[in-house]
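Note to self: the last two entries modelled the partners one at a time, which told us nothing about the interface. This time every component goes in together.
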Amino acid sequence: MKVIECSNLTKSYLRKKVLNQLTFSIEENTITGLIGKNGVGKTTLLKILAGYIKQTSGEINVFSEKPFNSLLVSANTIFVDDQMSFPSPLQLHEILQAAGSLYPNWDMTFANRLFHYFSFDPKHYHNRLSKGKTSTFNAIIGLASRAPLTIFDEPTTGMDAAARRDFYRALLKDYLTYPRTIIISSHHLEELENLLEDVLLIKDGNNHLHLPIEELKEQAIGLKGAEETILNWTKDREVYYKNQIGTNTLYAVVRNEFSEQELQLAKENEIEITSVSPSDLCVYLTGETKRGIDDVFIDR
Amino acid sequence: MSLSTVNTSKVVKQQYILKLKANFDAFSSLVWIQLLAILFSLGGVASQGFQSDGMSVSIKYFSADMVIAFTMIWGLVTAITITTKPYRYYDFSFVTNRVTSSLSNILYLCTASVIGGVTAVMAKGLLIIIGYFFLDFQLLDYYSQPFHVRDFLIGNIATVLYIIFICSIGYFIGALAQISKLFIAVIPVLFVGSMLLDGMMGREPIAMKILSFYFQESSFSLFVVKTLISTVLFFAASISILNRMEVRK
Amino acid sequence: MAILNTDGTKPIYMQIAEWLETEIMNGHFQTDEKVYSQYQLAEMYTINPATAAKGLNLLADENILYKKRGLGMFVSENAKERIIQKRKNQTLKRLIEEVVLEARRLKIGETELIDMIKASQSGGGVA
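The predicted structure of the combined assembly is written out below.
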């Protein structure tokens, strides 16, 4: 069953098109990573899915309904980010109670256990929490709600490494016992890789890539060696990235269309073959190909 | 995970309970405002005096109307406040749609109006007690007459209805302001402008006409109908305005 | 909590498959015994169950495991032998090719290379 179906979704602010003819769908009970550069429209997309904002044109269906003003979508969805706001007079334990009174699948025992594990004070106030603690608390609400569609937008902002690891582990464990559809938007793909089933890569407001992360890992291959050799080998291939190292060494990331024999031949030609991590590949795919940061330093 | 069905009235009820808890400081400010109004009222609103042949009489008039007026202002401000972005956004951290959000707001405002109205009417009694013990009030015969429950109830209901009506106006103004800040400037300008115009033309100002439509109605049931319908209209208009607003932009 | 080789050199599902092969080879799982489910593997390694499933399916495709509907994955008959054969023909062969390549780069002749292998086999370092 497709939980989310999106076709030709466009969202413009004044003249600028943030989302441009975006088309994709998400299957039930999968964990999808939403990847892309800052400002590419990830948060905008997620807010449309959650029913917070409306698209300019195009179709969007969540649980086969339009998400804007749908009580069904709202009751079965939770959107977690660092901007989640709660009435200021409420103490943390009262916020948990409020969530429990509204979310049908809420597990108070689970919420309390997480709450105590992360050392929260029930009588504390949400707007006095530090950045990392805010993210952690919001994440607890996200997990304990057991919403069939759980959306995390940069959920680990401000969290220290230990908290991040705990969060990912808690997310996975609860997902194993209570499967649901999860979308995580994050800049830390390297940390998320193992958790994800699919990756949706957004570039220029559009669906650049949507595939299982295991396939993404096999998409490209890294070749390093003497400049001339590499240039020869990459002549008629799709090159995602090129970087000169030292005087004569070139590192190139190309589309992986090589056979076993070709790779063997490459090795014999003193070409070092490495795999490309999904995180790096996404950076190359979404990057501006004309310039790099080194150009800023070019006349130094 | 299978989808949960959802019951609109249950959501409205839960949101309403949550809002009573979350807006508790509005009720504490109500208490302070009413106490302040009583304090001001203790100065009296008018005084008269005359003398003749070795007898001098001085009359000071007191009124509890200030408490009611202050409570109405409180209602207006409370209603406008809950249409502002921070308050509208709270609902979206959990389960809601724009209609349930407004409905629970309206229930909250009605509750606030009832509490505000009843306490405002009671304030009159408090004023008399303070006056009797501290300000040397002479209790007139009026007060040794049997207490008419009907009049008391009518007074209460009328006050509460006035306050709910004002709340609905406040909610409407707040909703308009969410569309564009311009409305905040435009409405007072229109108001004052029309008054000036009417004054210049020698006509009765439109504001007075509107007020007398409500305040000078002699039949109680007609008053109730007028006020209720107007309140419902303002709330309905507000709901439809807020129903299209994006949140968390 | 088990640790994976996360430097990106080998897909996770392959690492899972290889680890299961090793477990079968050292007798941890006998023939017709049930191996870990995708959910157990997911929890052990903190990975997505779909990835774990891919590793199990890889072994099923190679007839090292077989699936029993609704019950899980079980060790096939002769799985151990098949694994040894596979490792010999693929993994070991690849390693040997790399050793040969490196030796060629260093201009080390065949005799010297064989001596180095013999030394390593008799245990403890290379001369």
